[in-house]
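Sync notes, pocket subgroup
Present: LS, DG
LS reminded everyone that the earlier model was apo-only. Rerun requested with MGD included. Inputs:
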Amino acid sequence: MPTTAPKPDGRHSSICRLCLSYCPIEVEVRNGMVASVHGDPTGTPWNGFLCPKGRALPAQHTAADRLLHPVRRTAADTFAPAASADVIADIAARLHGIIDAHGPQSVALYIGTGVVSNPTMQWPVAAFMRALGSPMVFSAATIDKPGANVAQALHGLWQAGGYRMEDCDAWLIVGGNPVIARSNGAPPNNPGLRLKEAAARGMALIVIDPRQTETARRARHHLRVRPGQDAVLLAGMLRVILAEGLEDREFLTTHAQGLDALREAVSPFDLEFVEARTGVPAAQIVAAARDFARARRAGAVCSTGPSFAPHGTLSFYLALCLNTVCGHWPREGEPAPFPNILLPAFTPRAQAWAPYPAVGAFQLSATGLPLNASGLPTAGLPDQILTDTPDRIRALLCIGGNPVLSWPDQRTTERALSALDLLVVSDFRLTATAELAHFVVPPPLTLEIPGNTQMIEWLKYIGVTRGMSVPWAQATPAIVAPPEGADLLDEGSFLFLLAQRMGLDLTLNFVSGLGPHAEVPLRSVPLDMSGPPPSLETIYDLACAGSRVALGQVRQQSRGALHDLSHVTVEGPLPGADTRMELADPMMLSDLEAVLRETRTTAPGEVLLTCRRVNNYMNSVGQDLAALGEPINPLAMHPDDINALGLTGARRVLVEGQHGTLVCALSADNTLLPGTASLSHGFGGRMASTVGAGTSVAQLVGMDERDPVTGMPRMTAIPVRVVTAP
Ligand SMILES: Nc1nc2c(c(=O)[nH]1)N[C@H]1C(S)=C(S)[C@@H](COP(=O)(O)OP(=O)(O)OC[C@H]3O[C@@H](n4cnc5c(=O)[nH]c(N)nc54)[C@H](O)[C@@H]3O)O[C@H]1N2
Ligand SMILES: Nc1nc2c(c(=O)[nH]1)N[C@H]1C(S)=C(S)[C@@H](COP(=O)(O)OP(=O)(O)OC[C@H]3O[C@@H](n4cnc5c(=O)[nH]c(N)nc54)[C@H](O)[C@@H]3O)O[C@H]1N2
Ligand code: SF4
Ligand SMILES: [Mo]
């Protein structure tokens, strides 16, 4: 529950927390309400940046469709308002009934991207499920970039992390567009400007993307890969580097193993083969590989493009191999690239962490999908609800997520959610998912709760070259109070009160690090269950305990501040250390061989549908706000394809895939690679309803091609036909 007193009328410093850029803002408060939001102009490392989503924060807070009190489904299938205390009592009773009959495993929890807006939810969420005794914890991370964590487990890690882009002479982004998506693959602070500055100082930006994105336009080498062929291209680059002797032999001798096996595995990926498969001219591959390898410092980062394609984990793995083969890891004496600010102080070392298990023993019985280094595969959740085995999931708590529009195979998702005995949604509006819920419990919005920048620092654990690359920290109190008369519960308080009602004890666990390689030992903090829930500031105090810079100090600098952490340098390895990173994981090399043999081609008339993000919307958030324009989500195609397929002049088209069809608007877009099309996700509503604007691409995504480890289905490079809509 928000505990900080709201601010008086006037301008106040805060942080936009709609995406992981966490832009510093100034909020104009009038009559106790958010009147307008501006980028903070006072010389922050964001340079006053603010995007349309941030400007629309006031509209989000005052939206007419915002839920201001819990609702429960009635016998007549409508929603009736209810007091939060009553709703908690009802949910507790129903959970007790389900657990008594079927065991704790029948209760699952899904935590979505809402965690970006209120990170305090993550610890009580995990604590609640531990207390319940259910392993069924799912998150949006496993339909985002699960291959990142699995690849890091298979490859091992560099204890000091990867380089920051700001220090690099070459930088490789595979299937990401940080100029628009902001938080992936470039510094979080105004990535568009940072990429421009980097290009101006001569950094070789290499972008692998079928589309000529806003990011690719700033690149020295834009490799316009055919969708789904990233592993082939990365293997080809590795082959060039090894054939030309550009590897860092000294580094490899001490810190890696498996070089000979990797060399052999990539040897069939010669330039002729790679050009034919990827569509990227051989000369470009060679030039990019040389720039990457010869750089004094460089980094490679994969984002959603390769993640959503088949062999996603392999692409992440090969990107790590590129870093290691070229020795692009920070050495002893260099400044620590990601030293932690609001995360605990730790000792970054020029030493490898050995690989660790990528797959756990627990499996989802319906699909056989295992618990893996990124968590339990969300794409296996619907089957685990629809299965008729005794261990089926019967209740789902959905916290800050919108499965109907974000999970693959929308038809199956809706069928599964409708089959639940209990669906509880924490969201601030009646989303396509909330429409299927038995209870919806709305939280306060970002400017009504405190926050700080710790969350961005976490990104380094899900991608070694990501995270807070400027030593910046900021904290914000709640700026305004929730609307008068509202009955709102932040996610942690909701779960605390539910646990209290169910007689469960919650213990918050704080970890920083990956797998077994925590930077500091795990801290467990049992909560006092006898009184009210801890305030969000209390949870932040616990989460930031032992931080390199004290949260109390950060709170006092309300505009945020840079901290001089230049004294934190990379230290030498521990004496006798002989841990190595692995270049030839057997599972990865056998997947590479499978890639080599693949002969999939598109049939005549088919195009490959790709994913993309748009500036005005954060996944499914914002489409209801008039301030952000009309949410159309047209299918984008290259004008030549529109011509060739006889679609010239068509306003609406029918997109037919193996898993469904979709009617959508058509737009000509000459940034697309001919033979591809693109659609964003998060638009539209339920399949049967007319609620929601734009079209939901989840209707075209299937689940039959799930990665055996991460469960990631094919969410890009989907073959479709496009015809004029009747
Ligand atoms: N404005 C805005 N910002 C966001 C979001 C948003 O919805 N809107 N969402 C947030 C979230 S949850 C995430 S995970 C991040 C995602 O951040 P990014 O991963 O940067 O997302 P995109 O901008 O969609 O970039 C993906 C790119 O992959 C390309 N691509 C598609 N298929 C392939 C392929 O097979 N191979 C390669 N190499 N490229 C391919 C697409 O053309 C696209 O340019 O953005 C976050 N930030
Ligand atoms: N086809 C296709 N599918 C995709 C993707 C794609 O590009 N294409 N992208 C994938 C990726 S990268 C991701 S991360 C997932 C996203 O999957 P989800 O996280 O399930 O989807 P979102 O649309 O981000 O839903 C976030 C929900 O949280 C709510 N919310 C926002 N802030 C708060 C808050 O503070 N508290 C609470 N309780 N709720 C809040 C919002 O209203 C919204 O309904 O989707 C994945 N699915
Ligand atoms: S990029 Fe836009 S949505 Fe993201 S934090 Fe900044 S202003 Fe907010
Ligand atoms: Mo995501």
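DG: The longest strand covers residues 517-526.
LS: The mean pLDDT is 96.
Action: DG to write up.
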